[in-house]
Amino acid sequence: QSVLTQPPSASGTPGQRVTISCSGSSSNIGTNTVNWYQQLPGTAPKLLIYSNNQRPSGVPDRFSGSKSGTSASLAISGLQTEDEADYYCAAWDDSLNGWVFGGGTRLTVL
Amino acid sequence: QVQLQESGPGLVKPSQTLSLTCTVSGGSISSDSFYWSWIRQPAGKGLEWIGHISTSGSTNYNPSLRSRVTISVDTSKKQFSLKLSSVTAADTAVYYCARDWGYIAGFDPWGQGTLVTVSS
What we know:
The complex is a heterodimer of chains A (110) and B (120). Chain A is mostly beta strands and 110 residues long. Chain A has strands at residues 9-12, 18-23, 34-39, 46-49, 63-68, 71-76, 85-93, 98-101, 105-109. Chain A contains no helices and nine strands. The termini of chain A are far apart. Chain B contains no helices and eleven strands.
């Protein structure tokens, strides 16, 4: 059971906009920023969004993040087939004094 | 740019100690701006943070693993290491090392990961 809650799956067709939610609590998302990771099949995770809504260099602006209260969301617009991957949210948890992850969301591009 | 590479045995016997090393190249290991983390992923499952260390030796561990985990750093070799004792089949996973930018920016970059299987 992950500390952060994500839907196990999401899907969309090319060109569509999809969102993935991440729910936490006051000790993690409610207090600290949220980061998102993309894991393409058979590869290591890659930082996609940091500090709730910042994109590292090289990440397309189709990817965006937001946070409100104890929840966060990742939005992908103009969906492409290469976006098919697992997506994980993460935040520092002040009660556990450590990083916590969501269980991951598998995005399928139909 | 900074690259990380995990190394260590791919097979460990139950009850023994898993030992892995992460070598940092292309940049400095010593900085007040970040920590160095270990993260693992069982096959078909999600990510689990194991713990991290600063180059001054300050550590934080996942409470669920704290009694079995030790993370250390050797700045002269640009390496940091993981030891996980009393392993069982449940510790079978791909183990990743990553640079940990802390509260603000998370893990970036990651190593490619190394599969460790616990089996007799």
